[in-house]
């Protein structure tokens, strides 16, 4: 049994350490907190405090933080401190170019190979998104969104492609979590996903590619608008952290 930290984070239970190092678990938890915006861009991180929260020494915390630094999710300033990185606007744009290229490839393959049976996981993910929208659960909605796109890669026979996309789009995900609570945003995403699914079901390769392109193009519009609304959260091109 673990005792909760005042922050709400419990120390790591021993049973969770099997097959993973303490640093790996801490990295995953902190990474999820950063991508979900539980840890805000610019927020200070204390290795000592994190060690107390997780119930571990500072060594695995430091290892996790260094890995997050390599992923551009935290900035480490010697003699100054460690902070959750601001969202680099140029990286969001580059990531979206990569994502669109890979997902368009996946959806073309998926549309050519689709069948009622293989599309069932895609339908299930979309149904789950609808439930999370009704519950106003942005985190659950985002997880179901991930499942929707992963299922399309599976239909295409390219599951490894989604692994690459997930790694590339971390900064995009941070923007996404800022927009999902907006009124009507989840409904719009579902509408776009329904169009994608219809194109896949019809095995219309060209239409499926257009739908995914339209769906993913919204990210760049959102990122520019968000950087104006929340300038403290973003790092603009040519500006150092």
Characteristics of this structure?
mainly alpha, disordered N terminus, 64% helix, 2 domains, 241 residues, 6% strand, two-stranded parallel ribbon, Four Helix Bundle (Hemerythrin (Met), subunit A), Arc Repressor Mutant, subunit A, 10 helices
Textual characterization of the structure:
- The longest helix has 25 residues, at 89-113.
- The strands form 2 sheets. A 3-stranded antiparallel β-sheet has the order 1-3-2.
- A hairpin with a 3-residue loop joins β2 and β3.
- The protein has 2 domains: 14-85, Arc Repressor Mutant, subunit A; 88-235, Up-down Bundle (Four Helix Bundle (Hemerythrin (Met), subunit A)), CATH 1.20.120.
- It is mainly alpha-helical.
- The protein has helices at residues 22-35, 47-54, 58-70, 89-113, 120-134, 138-155, 159-168, 170-179, 185-201, 205-229, and strands spanning 44-45, 74-77, 81-84, 87-88, 234-235.
- α9 runs antiparallel to α10 (205-229).
- Helix content is 64%, strand content 6%.
- It is globular, with a radius of gyration of 19 Å.
- Mean pLDDT is 90; it is low at 1-7.
- 31% of the residues are buried.
- It is built from 10 helices and 5 strands, in the order αβααβββαααααααβ.
Short description:
The protein has 241 residues and is mainly alpha-helical.
Could you name the CATH topology of the largest domain? Four Helix Bundle (Hemerythrin (Met), subunit A)
Count the DSSP helices: 10
Output the strand order for the largest sheet.
1-3-2
Question: What is the strand tally?
Answer: 5
């Amino acid at each position: 049994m673990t005792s909760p930290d005042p922050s709400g984070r419990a120390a790591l239970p021993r049973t969770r350490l099997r097959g993973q190092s303490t640093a790996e678990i801490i990295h995953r938890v902190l990474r999820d907190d950063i991508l979900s915006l539980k840890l805000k861009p610019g927020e200070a991180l204390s290795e000592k405090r994190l060690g107390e929260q997780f119930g571990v020494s500072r060594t695995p915390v430091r290892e996790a933080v260094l890995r997050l630094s390599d992923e551009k999710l935290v900035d480490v300033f010697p003699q100054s401190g460690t902070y959750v990185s601001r969202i680099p606007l140029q990286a969001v744009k580059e990531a979206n170019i990569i994502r669109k290229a890979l997902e368009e490839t996946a959806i073309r393959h998926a549309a050519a190979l689709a069948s009622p049976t293989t599309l069932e996981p895609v339908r299930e993910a979309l149904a789950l998104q609808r439930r999370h929208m009704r519950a106003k659960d942005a985190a659950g909605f985002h997880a179901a969104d991930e499942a929707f796109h992963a299922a399309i890669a599976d239909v295409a026979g390219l599951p490894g492609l989604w692994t690459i996309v997930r790694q590339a789009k971390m900064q995009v995900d941070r923007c996404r979590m800022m927009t999902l609570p907006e009124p009507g945003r989840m409904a719009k995403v579902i509408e776009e996903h329904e169009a994608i699914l219809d194109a896949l079901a019809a095995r219309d390769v060209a239409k499926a590619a257009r739908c995914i392109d339209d769906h993913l193009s919204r990210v760049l519009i959102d990122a520019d608008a968000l950087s104006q609304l929340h300038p403290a959260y973003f790092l603009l091109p040519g500006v150092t952290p």
